[in-house]
Amino acid sequence: RSIKSLTTSSSSHILRRGYASEAVPDRKVAVLGAAGGIGQPLALLMKLNPLVSSLALYDIANTPGVAADISHINTRSEVYGYSGEAELGKALEGADVVIIPAGVPRKPGMTRDDLFNINAGIVKGLCEAIAKHCPHALVNMISNPVNSTVPIAAEIFKKAGTYDPKRLFGVTTLDVVRAKTFYAGKGKVPVAEVNVPVVGGHAGITILPLFSQATPKANLSDAEITALTKRTQDGGTEVVEAKAGKGSATLSMAYAGAVFADACLKGLNGASDVVECSFVQSTVTELPFFASKVRLGKNGVEEVLGLGPLSDYEKEGLEKLKPELQSSIEKGIKFANQVV
Ligand code: NAD
Ligand code: LMR
User: Fold this and answer.
1) Ligand 1 atom with minimal separation from the 146 CA
2) I need a labelling partner for 253 at 20 to 30 A (CA). Which of 224, 237, 259, 262 fits?
3) Could you identify the atom of ligand 2 that is nearest to the CA of residue 146?
């Protein structure tokens, strides 16, 4: 079976379905922003995922080279590169999962909300195209500020008449990845065994790791839990400062994005008990969107799980985060309704 890198509008991009020799169904994954700092390593990781049969790499520029490069890897999926807005529709057609790391990253001194003015418009345009070309795809939103870009996407889909809350996800997996790593380091427990739910949103104090529910249990003091919480909340800033003007987390984000997309694909394929934290439409709190554990299934969100028992420190953190998260959500909703 040949691996192709198709980079022009005239190229065929017919999906091949129904290979008897393959135990898993064909699945198309599209990465929007595929030539970027996250997009490239994320595309690489999706190329390594045996659940993917077709990988569409879209960006406003530079995708031909990325697609040609990745297409030489001898794994299952066929790779297609799409460059420029005229090719966006073809990139999206037939996609089961669309991952969006398109947009500008932070520089030192910036908040994620400082990215709103540029990224809101980018996300809006991409979501309009998704509504048109693959309205049933699961959308994995990575572009910041996630607390606003997910509500923007929801509003754009509502306007197009395609909104399905089960299919829209803000990717908060990097917060979970960080919480696991930091907890394992401090608690001296095997990192591969660690589980920590992270709830709320994806910016500063809206990121609320629930270390009281972490497993395996580690003997950590209140001061250590406070420090771990703060480090998880500031994890993105730690990377932004270390990169000193050259962007934000890309490699760890690509890993986290690949973990979350893999969970979506497993859910679509009918695997049982696939649970990841994600920022989704929610009734877990009074806020319309909230990150918590989510069970994934054949239609996307199967069940939004509750918060479980919280420590007093976590209860306090939950109340503190609500006003900021609410205002970021409202900002996204307002933007989508003003400009469309
Ligand atoms: P980057 O600048 O390296 O790459 C972004 C890519 O998006 C570029 O290749 C650019 O050409 C492309 N792009 C811009 N406009 C586009 C459009 N209209 N359509 C398609 N592609 C477009 O940035 P990065 O480091 O990859 O970060 C991307 C985004 O991800 C940022 O907003 C960043 O804040 C966010 N991020 C989120 C998380 C998270 O946990 N959710 C983690 C890290 C970064
Ligand atoms: C992260 O958490 O690393 C991302 O949201 C990028 C950033 O701006 O911190």
Assistant:
1) 41
2) 224
3) 5
**Strand 274-281 relative to strand 289-297, pairing:** antiparallel
According to the model, what pLDDT value does residue 11 have?
A: 31
What is the mean predicted confidence (pLDDT) over 288-313? 98
Question: Ligand 1: distance of its center to the CA of 50 in Å?
Answer: 25
CA distances 103 to 122, 124, 156, 187, Å, are 7, 11, 17, 36
Please report the pLDDT score of residue 287 as a whole number.
98
32-91 residue pLDDT tens: 999 999 999 999 999 999 999 999 999 999 999 999 999 999 999 999 999 999 999 999
Q: 239 in ligand 2 pocket by Cβ < 6 Å?
A: yes
Q: Does the pLDDT at position 13 exceed 70?
A: no
ipTM greater than cut 0.90: yes
The residue from 13, 133, 136, 202 that is catalytic is: 202
Instruction: Let me know if 202 is a catalytic residue.
Output: yes
Check pocket membership of 174 for ligand 2, CB cut-off 6 A: yes
Q: Are 175 and 209 in contact, with CB atoms under 8 Å apart?
A: yes
Distance (Å, whole) CA 58 – CA 136: 19
Q: Which of 96, 148, 95 is nearest to 118 (CA)?
A: 148
Q: Measured from the CB, is residue 106 less than 6 Å from ligand 2? A: yes
Q: Is 112 in the pocket of ligand 2 (CB under 6 A)?
A: yes
Give the distance (Å) from ligand 1 centre to CA of residue 256.
Answer: 14
pLDDT tens-digit map of 114-142: 999 999 999 999 999 999 999 999 999 99
